[in-house]
Amino acid sequence: MVAIDYPVQIALLDDHPLFRQGVRYILQTLPYVAGIFDTGEFAPLLAHCRQRLPDLLLLDLQLPGTDGSEVARQLLSEFPDLKIIVLSMFSADKFIAQMLKLGVRSYLPKDVDDAQLRVAIEEVLVTGSHVTPRIAQALLNSEQHPTPLRPLVLPRLVQLTPREEEILHLICGGHTAADIADRLFISRRTVEGHRQKLLEKTSAPNSAGLVLYAARHGLLDN
C-alpha cells in the first residue's frame, strides 16, 4: 500500500448513477480521500474543475452528447496537470493507446475490483501513472500499427545502465514499483529513484511514455 499523507479530492464523470454510487462507496473507504464530486455530464465537471481542480478524475469514455476522449482532450488542454484514470467497457488496443497518448495516467476496465482500483489511484497520485500489462501490450501494439493521433515524440536512444534496463523491462511488463522492489530485492524508494532517472534520460512524461520509448527503440526485443 502506498502512503498518501495529504487530503485528496477525486472527481468522477460517468452517466450511470448506479455505477457512480458504487465507485463513490469504494472511494469513501480510502482514508486519504477528503472529497468526492460525481456527475453524469461534462458541463458540471468543467465548472467544478475551474472552481477547484481535483487531484484525480475517474472518467468514462461513453457519455451522452460527447465522448470521453474529447472530454480528456479539453480538460488536459485547460488543466495539463490533471491526473485522469479512464474506467471503460471498451478494451480495444486503439482506445487504450489513444487515451494514454492524449495524456491520461491509466486505463482500467469497468469490472476492475476495489483493490485494483485502489492500487491504480494510489500509484497515479504518487508516481503519476499506473501501467498494467494490458496497457503495456496495447501501447506496444499501437507502435506496430500506429495511428495518427498525436504520437509522443521521444528522443534517440540513450545509454541506460543494466539495472535501468532491467527496471524498464519490468515497467513495460506492467509491474508496480512494489512488485519490482520485491523481484529485485531492493527498496521501493530505490525503484522510484531508478524510474525517475529513466524519465529524465528518455524525456518520457510517465510510465506509459517509457513503454513507448522501449517499443520504438527495440529494447523489449533484447
Task: Walk me through what this model shows.
The protein folds into 2 domains: 8-141, Response regulator (Rossmann fold); 152-221, Winged helix-like DNA-binding domain superfamily/Winged helix DNA-binding domain (Arc Repressor Mutant, subunit A, Orthogonal Bundle), CATH 1.10.10. The chain contains 10 helices and 7 strands. The protein has helices spanning 17-28, 42-51, 68-78, 93-102, 114-127, 133-144, 162-172, 177-184, 188-202, 207-216, and strands spanning 8-13, 33-39, 56-59, 62-63, 66-67, 84-88, 106-109. The protein has a 5-stranded parallel sheet, with helices on both faces.
Alpha carbon gyration radius: 17 Å
CATH class of the largest domain: Alpha Beta
Helix run count: 10
Structural class: alpha/beta
Main beta sheet, described?
Answer: 5 strands, parallel
Distance between the termini: 32 Å
CATH superfamily of the largest domain: Response regulator
**Major sheet: order of its strands?**
2-1-3-6-7
- Counted beta strands: 7
Quaternary structure state of the chains depicted:
single chain
Overall average pLDDT: 86
Modified residues (4-aspartylphosphate): 60
Keywords: DNA-binding, Phosphoprotein, Transcription, Transcription regulation
GO molecular function: DNA binding
Protein name: Response regulator
